[in-house]
Write a structure and sequence with these properties.
It contains 12 helices and 16 strands. By secondary structure, it is α/β, with parallel strands linked by helices. The protein folds into 2 domains: about 150 residues, Medium-chain alcohol dehydrogenases, catalytic domain (Quinone Oxidoreductase, Chain A, domain 1); about 140 residues, NAD(P)-binding Rossmann-like Domain (Rossmann fold, 3-Layer(aba) Sandwich). The strands form 3 sheets. Strands 3, 5, 6, 7, 8, 15 and 16 form a 7-stranded mixed beta sheet that branches.
């Protein structure tokens, strides 16, 4: 089977190549999936570059999330059937076939497209889990940067029906319109000199309970400056590639708290009932159209290096996907 392989860590556009690998066999509790479409996430690119929290043994097949058709069942799998379309995270999803744990496969209704199914789990689940992680409640104000990223857009959309108010920071003026076209409100460009005044006008002076930072660098301090007393700053991304720069004054005088968030650590601690509820909320939101998972470009698996380069570009309006 064709697979996107890397034998050394480095620039994904340089180190990725398509090679033939043996067809994998599912073990107990696993399924083999014939990949239809796979997502390219930021953490996928960081993993290939050797800059993520997990470093796989090399050579490795890239990719962690896809949609496809169940092709074979491992021992003990009774709730899925061969031929069923599912969204599933797994290792090595940038390949014609990949292995996933059967318990984590999400059967898809017809109204969810392959484009949405390929990105249904990781980013939306991060968004919903972040809302729980910060204990956001109806009527609260929170703020996030990188709001035009996959997690940022999903978080804003899921927060709305929960009655949680979100200020959405972007770094380009054009992104304000992009998010407004998706029905996302309270979008502020930090490219404007008076953006913090705009934030105060939007909240009406109400305290901001938590700030979600996906950028790092100077942006960490900028967003921390907006939170109220006993506010929380959550770091979940490092888009800038720079260390967080935060004010000691904000920490001391606001008694602010800084926490890190990584879904890979949080998800295993969730009770099965809670995880099922969150996934159900995602499926319902996407199927109903209340949540839109946007796509920038779809490229062939044979063009994986080109696809990785496209996914690393700024100013994208959605995910870059790979089709088998």
């Amino acid at each position: 089977m064709r697979s996107a392989i890397y034998s050394r860590f480095g620039d994904p556009a340089t180190v990725l190549s398509v090679e033939e690998r043996p067809l994998p066999e599912p073990g107990a509790g696993q399924v083999r999936i014939r990949m239809s479409m796979a997502s390219i996430h930021n953490h996928d690119l960081l993993t290939v570059a050797g800059q993520y929290g997990i470093k796989p043994d090399l050579p490795a097949v890239a990719g962690t999330e896809a949609v496809g058709i169940v092709d074979a069942l491992g021992e003990g799998v009774g709730h899925l059937r061969v031929g069923q379309r599912v969204a599933a995270s797994g290792k090595g999803t940038w390949a014609e076939f990949y292995i996933a744990n059967a318990a984590t496969c999400v059967p898809l209704p017809e109204m969810i497209s392959d484009e949405a199914g390929a990105q249904l789990i990781s980013m939306p689940l991060s968004a919903l889990t972040l809302l729980d992680f910060i204990a956001a409640e109806r009527g609260d104000w929170i703020i996030q940067n990188a709001a035009n990223g996959a997690v940022g857009k999903a978080l804003a959309m899921f927060a709305k029906p929960r009655g949680i108010n979100v200020v959405n920071l972007v770094r380009r003026d054009e992104a304000v319109t992009e998010l407004a076209d998706l029905g996302i409100e309270n979008v502020v460009s930090t490219g404007q000199a008076d953006w913090q005044d705009t934030v105060r006008a939007i909240t009406g002076g109400a305290p901001i309970k938590a700030a979600i930072d996906g950028v790092g660098g100077k942006s960490s301090g900028d967003i921390l400056s907006t939170v109220g007393e006993n506010g929380l700053l959550v770091s979940f991304g490092m888009m800038s590639g720079e260390p967080m720069q935060i004010s000691a004054g904000d920490l001391v005088f606001k008694q602010a708290i800084v926490k890190g968030f990584w879904l890979a650590k949080i998800a295993p601690t969730l009770a099965p009932e809670k995880l099922k509820s969150l996934v159900g909320e995602i499926v319902q939101g996407v199927a109903s159209g209340a949540v839109t998972l946007t796509v920038s470009e779809v490229l062939s698996l044979d063009d994986v290096a080109k696809a990785a380069a496209a996914a690393g570009e700024t100013a994208r309006k959605g995910k870059v996907l790979i089709r088998a």
